[in-house]
Amino acid sequence: MQRTSVHRVGEQRWVRWTLICLALGLTLLLLVMPLLLIFVEAFSGGAQTWWANLTDYYTLRAIGLTLLVAALTVPLNLLFGVFLAWLVTRFEFPGRKLLITLIDIPFAVSPVVAGLLYLLLYGSNGWLGGWLMQHDVQLMFAWPGIVMVTVFVTCPFVARELIPLMQQQGREEEEAAVVLGASGWQLFRRVTLPNIQWALLYGVVLTNARAVGEFGAVSVVSGNIRGETNTLPLHIELLYQDYNAVGAFTSASLLAVIALVTLLVKSFVEWRQARQRAPLHEQQEQG
Amino acid sequence: MSITLEQINKSFGAFRALDDISLEIGDGQLVGLLGPSGSGKTTLLRIIAGLESADRGRILFQGEDVTGLHVRERRVGFVFQHYALFRHMTVAENIAFGLDVLPRKSRPVAGEIRRRVGELLEMVQLSHLAGRYPSQLSGGQKQRIALARALAMQPQILLLDEPFGALDARVRKDLRRWLRNLHDELHFTSVFVTHDQEEALELSDQVVVMSAGRIEQVDQPQALYARPDSRFVFDFLGHVNVFDGTLDGRLLQQGEAWIRLPENREGASSVQVYLRPHEVRLQLQPVAHAHLPLQVEAINLIGAEVRLELRPCGWEAAQLWEIGITHAEFNAWQPRRGDRCFAVPDVGHLFGAGNAAPETLYWG
Amino acid sequence: MNTKRGSLLPRLTSHPGKRVLPGFALSMGVSLLFVSLVLLLPISGLVVESAGMSWAQYWAVVSDERVVASYRVTLWAALIASLFNGVVGLLLAWVLVRYSFPGKRVVDALMDLPFALPTAVAGITLAALFAENGWYGQWLATLGIKVAFTPLGIIVAMSFTSLPFVVRTVQPVLEDLPVEDEEAAISMGASDWTVFRRILFPSLWPALMTGIALSFTRSLGEFGAIIFIAGNMPYVSGSDQPDDFHSTAGVRPCGGQRDCLGGAAGLADSAVRHQSVAGPLSAASARTLRSSHAAYVGSSCR
């Protein structure tokens, strides 16, 4: 067999193009088609129907609730993530490794179980339930419970993006800044933040995507009260079970757009990070 | 501004990094902390800066106790080993940083800051790089910018952590010279850490040799080289040929080799004589005061001289001996591997059993 | 910096009030408060309930007949889905790493779609696709294959939602394969398949296994995507209505009705039951993938 300039496996033209076509085909079938379906179904009644569905009272309430959840969850977890990453990568103290491990708890627990645990704690029959009822505070089966559970499920994202990056970057720049006289806030704003901005952005986008799309945990604590405690994913479920496919897909199209934006931001962040690394290769040791 | 260290102690867990260090650094001096890894020199430097705190002991700047002062208040300049330039700021912004973060009251106006940055860039001869980012600079350039950044605050004390460690030989030499000139011009007190003895000896007014958390010797470079106080300093400052033997009166013996000391000695029977490569000659025949047979093991032509590696014959040494001969001698003798010759000491350093300073011996 | 200990290691000074970098107290306070309130407090519920059970009770909870039946389907489906993902994921990773073609960056970005897309959306989409009159369902029906409301549907949903695990786990390993090994083997006359089989695949195998394992774990915990395509009925505590296929779905109490909780004991039982199946695997997988872009990957179930 002729083997002129082939020096890696699978470089021959026919192999290459077969595999590429196969991969593209699979991507089409498994990923593109579902995406397409969402929009086809959503607009199957025309743009007007789509708009009507979107602005339907209960849909709007669901969107509102979802936005509220995201608006509360994302800043909270952003703050937590930054503080935790700062603590864990810039200081040494007993229990540091344990703390890093604890952040993974939401991954070790299925979201449905997470929901159950929150019910166990704050539900009317739960440990704190009695105390809460006495003070006329209802957390479960109301929007606070949804927020709490979403916070639980999304809390690791920002921290897990920041921690490896900040560890890899090291403390030297910050030490240098302190020696030069910077205060805590100046240090963070001028030195740390610019170094972590893309990872931070990505962590926020991930948190947001997950907060908006969380289903399992939220469905447990929500109570599914139309117009009150239905987030968009729950609302979709409701519509679908009511055989209102178009309505369900309309809401789904909204979430699909958010998903696509998430993918875009991820690509962008990776592109930026790759660009940042490149110049270092061209360095030479010259005076 | 003078620096005084009183009984500095520092441990990391069970590891004793610094053991009762006391040191006096005069105003305007350029002092090198020299030692191998783990000797504690970097820890000491960081304690002076305030980037670490000592477990016990005091630090004084010009007589004033700064031990309790946070690094931010100490107003020292610090140059990190890996430069620690702010990667997201341009060169100019890096240099201006210290001035930019001053409290509003003491901060100069923007125009003034720009002017100062310009001056500093001129001083380090990198004005054309003002708009570049650190990732676009070479190692030597980064080092100079790091220095300029530290000097922007006009510190009285400048501390440098292995400033030239990551650069190659030629760049290192240039920067060394340049730092020395800068120091002479600006008169700050400067302390730098290095493991390169050539660098320490060339740059410093005073060299502090450290080992295992202790100070072995503090001296001017020439004195340090000429009269090392201990085995460690000897070993550290370049190759040394060691003759280990038993002393009986004037004769120091080991196996087939012996050296006759210039004077009688009583006391210690087991002693060592340390001989610098330039303190001993090679001859084809032994002399009256020494019989040290050697066999040529390797011949290295190193620039100005020829360095021979020699194996002891009929006696033993922990390491091969190294003795240099001139090119003229080399051409005359034409040594080859396996050739026999004899070492003839001119100056030697006698070490007794303990760690006391050695005695210098001269043979006529 | 003491290079022996590495310049990246933060230092503990012996005067804790004198740390060089600011913000220790503040960040410690915030972190501990948050971790205790949000993470530890709820988890303690699980720990206490589990600890409070005797072995017999525990066993009774975990081995309830109806539930065991649902485990079996879940485990088999997850296994098949992950193996399928192993093959497809390997192919996709290979093509993405080795070849260039127009639209490659788009395809690469799309690999993360199952992660980015909310599971409810994935659920209804897959259900619609594979329904008998759906785009795929209709011509699968001509072949006599029914997907919706069957275990096959569960496999499809699991496969979709956990496909990225394999791709993203194998990609970096593929990228790092040394060129020289292949070049040497080929220059010695080995055929492509031989080189792949004997040189490349052994290096890829660990990553592939990891990806499959992660995919498996994720599939076990999948909820949202499955309930639509499997037509699942929520498990109503205290009643005889069995949940159809999926153990996780079986955990949702009373379809979420406010007053029908079956008590704290019922909740705890469900939690313990579910956690003991998927929990250890999820925890292990979270540990395996600590790298940053695997943060997405680590989200075990929705």
UniProtKB/TrEMBL annotation, chain A:
Transport in keyword set: yes
All copies of domain ABC transmembrane type-1, residue ranges: 63-270
Entry's transmembrane regions: 20-40, 60-86, 98-121, 141-159, 199-225, 245-265
Alphabetized PANTHER family for the sequence: SULFATE TRANSPORT SYSTEM PERMEASE PROTEIN, SULFATE TRANSPORT SYSTEM PERMEASE PROTEIN CYSW
SUPFAM superfamilies registered for this protein in UniProt: MetI-like (SSF161098)
Name the record gives this protein: Sulfate transport system permease protein CysW
Membrane topology: Multi-pass membrane protein
GO cellular component terms given for this protein: plasma membrane
An example molecular function term from Gene Ontology annotations: ABC-type sulfate transporter activity
Cellular localisation: Cell inner membrane
PROSITE patterns: ABC_TM1 (PS50928)
Record key words, sorted: Cell inner membrane, Cell membrane, Membrane, Sulfate transport, Transmembrane, Transmembrane helix, Transport
InterPro entries, alphabetized: CysW_permease, MetI-like, MetI-like_sf, Sulph_transpt2
Subunit structure: The complex is composed of two ATP-binding proteins (CysA), two transmembrane proteins (CysT and CysW) and a solute-binding protein (CysP).
Function: Part of the ABC transporter complex CysAWTP (TC 3.A.1.6.1) involved in sulfate/thiosulfate import. Probably responsible for the translocation of the substrate across the membrane.
N-terminal signal peptide: none
